[in-house]
Design brief:
The complex is a heterodimer of chains A (646) and B (240).
Chain A: E1 2-5, H1 9-19, E2 22-25, H2 44-64, H3 75-78, E3 87-88, H4 94-138, E4 149-150, E5 154-160, H5 167-175, E6 180-187, E7 190-198, H6 202-211, E8 215-216, H7 227-279, E9 284-285, E10 289-296, H8 301-312, E11 316-318, E12 330-331, H9 343-349, H10 360-375, H11 378-395, H12 399-422, H13 429-434, H14 449-477, H15 481-505, H16 513-534, H17 538-551, H18 554-579, H19 584-622, E13 628-629, E14 640-641
Parallel strand pairs in A: 3-14, 12-13
Antiparallel strand pairs in A: 1-10, 1-11, 2-10, 4-5, 5-7, 5-8, 6-7, 9-10
Helix pairs in contact in A: 1-8, 2-4, 2-7, 4-7, 5-6, 10-12, 10-18, 10-19, 11-12, 14-15, 14-17, 14-18, 14-19, 15-16, 18-19
Chain B: H1 4-41, H2 46-54, H3 58-73, H4 86-102, H5 105-122, H6 127-136, H7 139-154, H8 166-182, H9 185-202, H10 206-216, H11 218-234
Helix pairs in contact in B: 1-2, 1-3, 1-4, 1-5, 2-5, 3-4, 3-7, 4-7, 4-8, 5-6, 5-9, 6-9, 7-8, 7-11, 8-11, 9-10
Chain lengths: 646, 240
């Protein structure tokens, strides 16, 4: 809990938001039992003004966005350099920030008026286009536009729509068979229905047209003369309005590009300021004191205290205590910077609970190793590495892309190493087409599948036992000795003893009677403990363990799939190229496309199965997760920078 | 003159590609139906839907791989099919059955991926989890691929050694059937994964436990793999 004199309220909030290491909680539910004597005091006038201004500004930005140059989508977007221009943050007080925002909104009004005018031009353009379309249709059958509509004695209606069944004609003739003419014309894809009759039948005929889905064509007042003459006038008007639209659009685009960075910066500042006001709802006040309570990492407490002391010029108090297990403690990762990108992969499964081990340090290196072994092609590794370097170079300032780039870079390097060991360079491309034998090959999955099969099982044994060991450590740490014995220790006894018995059964080794008895007793004892602690479900523990272990052979299967499919592509390329000299270029194109496809599909598979081996086989031994994310009271600046950053 | 061995090898390649293509086709069809529904409402989700649609295609690729390896081992691309013994043909059929039947796991994967498409359309953050759940059902196909490769490699067929005993070769069909038919357990797993995606979309914390439920159906695939390995062991394929 932090308390300062009321005069330091704003500086304290600014300092804490800038520091971004504290999650503020509602002081009314304070464990310090002081909520009842406190009142929360957000400034409702300021809060309303901030909300209203930010809303208005957001709407303006929304209406400006369509006038920005279009961003590329999909893969192209990945390599598009982001606009990371940042303006200096407004260091002024909140009233000045609001006034600046109001000024910007006022300046935007001219552009908004321009957008309105553009809309009117566009509507006018649409109207002219409709008229041109109608003039084109009626021009063939009506000599003068003035003839359409009502005259002193007769009427003439021309309607657009389908009357292939002649239903309109029949209905109209029922009105008056002698004095009415109905005729249908086919004008390209459209049908025109023309009707001439005595003036008194006009309204009834018009009703019949509409009820049959035929829309009467009408022209605005003042249209007269031959339709073809009027058509030329309308076309001239259309080209004039198009020029107006283009000019206006270009002017708006320029204005929008000039003002938008300021609008974004101002909106960001307003959001940050509103965040401070929102926090006041969770804070407490007495006549002279302003109090806040929140979660902070133990190691950040000295820094926090020093900042609060500096901000309040020693007029403060700060009290802290360790969290207890029954509290709703938020969880944040605490890994070195090189591991942080991999936290997202742990979070995809579940964030650790408070006081639970964070598996990321175990997860990251093994994940990369599994990925490399499964993809197992150094050529693909180089492609991934190059792509990651490109992403880091172009989009490195965006945290999301930076993390993705780092993961890809590590995965690419791991694949280069593992691929070299497995001798995969776009499959067997160097040896097939250039007669070059790749160096440093230790295990070729296609030539020595059994070696890789055994290697995968050994890796699986180590990985699963690492998981059991972590679980054992955790149980010992919380002094759950019984669970540690029943759930972990017995597996360390069961595995070697069962291995000895199985090896003896298959005749791979010969044991002395004493050793055999000891192994048999150990297995029996472990099974008794297992079934005693888990009941009949103990059987599934055994099959589950076996399944987890055998599941690691997917490392071999995926390595074989990558190499095998790449080899198949090379084989088909060779067949195409050898069919005719003219097919050499198509064969090369086929090879590039095939290898790209294999790279994409196998990279996806390797990522997913390396994750799966962790999520199911590894995490299943010691990790459940489910912690609540730490949400710091923090400035999120993307369009602005503070004086320190500047 | 083409011998019976070459004919049986061709049948083995056909079983591998044909069965796995049927499985992949049904799986992709299930996802495609869901994807069409999604993009009719939200065309911008096309890219995401395409990734999910691609997931059950892997089985057909694995089937193709085994088919090509069989044909290449038999010299079908170089015109050397005359001297293939019948035993080698049975080995190819065993490998073809292992991979081809396991390719039906794509149906389960399609069921899970369809749920992934639907939930990711509503919640983009479900993409990663949807892909993980969908990938779980690929295990059966991977086991099929593994056993098929082991059959071809350990009998020496892959490296052009055609001295495998006829009885061993026929026995290996049992290994192929064990792992291939056990691959159908992926359909049940797909149903669990589909519900798991829905559960995780509702409550993110459900991922870990839902994966455990999904992994339970895999037990039967592991039985199939275990028996296939034991058959290969019993037939002396692992002896040095």
């Amino acid at each position: 809990m932090i308390g300062v004199h009321q005069s330091w309220r704003e500086p304290l909030l600014s300092t804490l938001q800038n520091m971004g290491e504290v999650e503020i909680i509602d002081i009314k539910q304070s464990s310090f039992d002081c909520g009842s004597i406190l009142s929360s005091s957000p400034d409702s006038y300021i809060l309303d003004r901030l909300t209203h201004t930010a809303f208005k500004m957001d709407q303006i930005i929304e209406s400006f966005i369509p006038f920005l140059p279009k961003k590329p989508s999909g893969i192209k977007n990945l390599f598009e350099k982001p606009d990371d221009t940042r303006l200096p943050a407004s260091g002024s007080d909140i009233t000045q920030t609001l006034d600046q925002a109001d000024n910007l909104i006022e300046s935007s009004q001219g552009i908004l008026n321009g957008i309105e005018l553009l809309k009117e031009y566009s509507e006018e353009k649409s109207r002219i286009e409709v008229i041109i379309g109608n003039l084109g249709l009626v021009g063939e059958i009506v000599p003068n536009i003035c003839d359409i509509g009502l005259s002193t004695f007769i009427f003439l209606i021309v309607g657009k729509g389908d009357d292939s069944t002649g239903e309109i004609g029949r209905s109209v003739y029922e009105v008056s068979s002698d004095e009415i003419i109905v005729k249908t014309y086919q004008m390209g894809s459209e049908s025109l229905v023309l009707c001439i009759g005595m003036r008194e039948y006009f309204w009834r005929v018009e009703e019949i047209f509409k009820s049959h889905g035929v829309t009467p064509i009408l022209f605005p007042e003042g249209y007269k003369g031959k339709p073809t003459e009027q058509l030329n006038i309308e076309r001239e008007r259309l080209s004039q309005i198009q020029v107006l639209i283009d000019d206006k659009k270009a002017a708006i685009q320029k204005q929008v590009q000039d003002i938008l960075p300021d609008l974004y910066a101002s909106l960001e500042e307003l959001t940050i300021r509103r965040g401070r006001q929102d926090i006041l709802k969770k804070a407490g006040s007495t006549r002279d004191m302003f109090l806040l309570e929140g979660w902070v990492r133990h190691k950040d407490t000295p820094v926090l205290e020093s900042l609060v002391r500096k901000t309040s010029q020693d007029e403060y108090f700060l009290s802290s205590r360790p969290a207890t297990a029954d509290e709703d403690v938020p969880v944040r990762y605490d890994n070195p910077s090189w591991l942080r990108p991999f936290e997202i992969l742990t979070t995809t499964f579940a964030r650790p609970r408070y006081n639970e081990i964070d598996p990321t340090p175990f997860f990251a290196p093994v994940f990369l190793f599994f990925f490399g072994m499964m993809l197992g092609d150094a050529g693909y590794g180089f492609v991934i590495t190059l792509a990651s370097l490109l992403i880091l170079r172009i989009k490195g300032t965006d945290p999301m892309y930076r993390d993705m780039g780092i993961i890809l870079l590590c995965a690419g390097v791991a694949d280069i190493i593992c691929g070299t060991i497995q001798g995969g360079w776009f499959g067997d491309l160097p040896s097939k087409f250039f007669g070059v034998t790749p160096p440093f090959v230790l295990i070729d999955p296609l030539k020595s599948p059994i070696v890789l099969f055994l290697f995968a099982l050994i890796i699986g044994t180590i990985h699963i036992n690492l998981g059991i060991l972590i679980a054992l450590w955790e149980n010992i740490r919380i002094q759950a000795y019984k669970t540690a014995f029943q759930d972990q220790v017995i597996w360390f006894i069961l595995q070697p003893a069962a291995a000895l018995l199985i090896a003896t059964f298959f005749g791979w080794i010969t044991l002395t009677t004493n050793l055999l008895l000891m192994a048999g007793f150990a297995v029996g004892f472990c099974l008794v403990v297992l079934f005693y602690s888990r009941g009949p479900m103990g059987f599934f523990s055994l099959t589950g363990f076996l399944g987890d272990w055998l599941s690691y052979v997917r490392i071999l299967a995926l390595a074989l799939a990558t190499g095998g499919i790449a080899m198949t592509i090379n084989l088909l390329t060779e067949m195409i190229a050898s069919a005719s000299p003219y097919l050499l270029i198509p064969a090369i194109i086929f090879c590039i496309l095939g290898q790209t496809f294999n790279l994409a599909i196998q990279t996806l598979g390797s990522v997913i199965h390396a994750l799966r081996l962790h999520y199911i086989e590894f995490f299943g031994k010691f990790y459940s997760g489910g912690g609540r994310s730490f949400i710091p009271f923090k400035e999120d600046r993307r369009y602005t920078m503070t004086r320190e950053e500047n | 003159m083409i011998g019976t061995g070459a004919v049986l090898m061709a049948i083995g390649a056909g079983l591998s590609v044909g069965f796995s293509a049927v499985g992949a086709g049904i799986g992709v069809g299930i996802v495609g139906a869901a994807a069409s529904g999604v993009i009719s409402e939200r065309p911008e989700k096309f890219g995401m839907a395409l990734v999910f649609s691609a997931i059950p295609q892997t089985q057909a690729i694995y089937g193709l791989l085994i088919g090509i390896l069989i044909l290449q081992s038999g010299g079908f691309f170089s015109g050397g099919t005359q001297d293939i013994p019948v035993s080698v043909g049975f080995v190819a059929i065993a490998a073809g059955l292992a991979m081809g039947l396991a390719g039906f796991s794509a149906i389960g994967q399609g069921i899970a991926a369809a749920s992934g498409v639907a939930h990711t359309a509503e919640k983009p953050e479900m993409f990663g989890k949807g892909v993980v759940f969908s990938a779980v059902c690929e295990t059966q196909a991977i086991y099929g691929l593994l056993v098929a490769i082991l059959i071809l490699a350990l009998t020496g067929v892959l490296s052009g050694d055609f001295t495998v005993d006829i009885n061993v070769a026929i026995g290996l069909i049992g290994a192929g059937l064990a792992v291939g038919l056990a691959g159908f357990s992926a359909i049940g797993q797909g149903i669990t994964c589909s519900a798991g995606i829905a559960a995780t979309a509702k409550n993110t914390d459900a991922l870990g436990r839902s994966l455990v439920f999904a992994a339970m159906s895999e037990t039967f695939a592991i039985f199939g793999l275990l028996i296939a390995i034991l058959i290969m062991f019993g037939l002396g394929l692992f002896s040095v």
